[in-house]
Amino acid sequence: MKLNRVLSSIIMMLFFIGNYSAQECGNFIPMKEGYKWEVTNFNKKGKEEGKSVNTVSSVVNENGLTTAKVDIVSTDGKDEITTSFDISCDGTTFKMGMTFFLPAEQMEQMQSVESMEVELDMEDMEFPNELEVGQDLKDAQMTMTAKMNGIQVMNTTTIIKNRKVLGKESITTASGTYDCFKIEQTSYVKMGFIEREVKSISFLSEGIGVVRSESYDKKGELDSYSEITKVF
Fold first, then answer.
1. Would you tell me how many other CB atoms lie within 10 Å of the CB of residue 126?
2. Containing domain of residue 186, as a range?
3. Using CA of residue 98, residue 99, residue 105, residue 106, what is the dihedral sign?
4. What integer pLDDT is reported at residue 23 of this predicted model?
5. C-alpha span between 78 and 128 (Å, rounded)
6. Are 6 and 222 in contact (CB under 8 A)?
7. How many CB atoms lie under 10 A from the CB of residue 72?
8. Contact 87/60 with Cβ under 8 angstroms?
9. Residues 84 and 58 sit within 8 Å (Cβ to Cβ)
């Protein structure tokens, strides 16, 4: 799966955590145990290339902090991969650990090697409870170092930068029409000698989450997109 499509799926899933009764934990990113939704990935021509079913499996409230676990089952029509991640919010800010930006295939491969040690250095991705047009959002980053028998075999740095609320738009998907905030960001990934930047735009609707996410190539042309296609 291309990096652009991985990032597009990630953005969709991290926003769409549903609980319409728990607005103190995010007007745009609410939480509810048992909530389940489907995200479908498309290429630039609109051909389906995969989908994921995401379920909020647990929600814990403790000392003013709400933490939720999200289980993800992803498939491209051939292989199926199961992963999970945690998110949290304190009533004013939503946070997501940057481990979410590790492709599921890569995590599965590393976990299968018994002698591999993985070290992570992260600054969480944050979203304020109240968004405004023109608002700049904080950068987020993660450095992952993998070692075998004390020898470094891989070093990957991911930085999410240039995050900005561009404006408001009405977006229509298979699941309906929504009034959305339009948010752009740039994802920079460096793995060894390989460097890559991907620009993406997300459309975030109050009480729903991201209803559509688009990834662009280096020429500024649409490369892929993801949309909410079903809420169970």
1. 15
2. 3-231
3. positive
4. 47
5. 38
6. no
7. 19
8. no
9. no
Among all chains, which residue has been given the structure tokens 């470094």? 152
- Chain segment 167-217, per-residue pLDDT in tens: 999 999 888 888 999 999 999 989 888 998 999 999 988 777 778 999 999
CB 231 within 8 A of CB 34: no
**Letter for the amino acid at 155?**
N
Q: Would you call 84 helix, strand, or coil by DSSP?
A: strand
Q: How far apart are CA 218 and CA 166, in angstroms?
A: 20
Based on DSSP, count helices (H) and strands (E) in the chain, helices before strands.
Answer: 2, 14
Tens digit of each residue's pLDDT (9 = 90 or more) over 90-111:
888 888 777 666 665 666 666 6
Cβ-based neighbour number of residue 113 at 10 Å: 12
Token pair listed for 219: 């020429």
Indicate the number of domains in the chain.
Answer: 1
**Residue 1 predicted with pLDDT over 60:** no
State the CATH number of the domain containing residue 224. Answer: 2.40.360.20
